[in-house]
Amino acid sequence: MPQKPSPGHCRTLYFASAASFTRKSSEEFPAPLSIADLFVRLEQSYPGIKDKVLASSLLTINLQYVDVEEEDGSENASSTIIKAGDE
Fold this sequence. Notes:
alpha+beta, two-stranded antiparallel sheet
């Protein structure tokens, strides 16, 4: 397991298809940022990841699953904030 993220950053851990797509096991991003902003950054760095990987992936923040889309179809991605130190 990697060390804690650098100060002012969060760490994204990649598993399975996400690790294969990015060719990385983890990556740090400046924090805080919303899940929506994280997805935008990932799509900019890895074109196609949103549709090919993220659309069918589960997301956790500090080992707690996060609903990216609510049952009513509205997105929770804009309101959930990933804080510095989160993984």
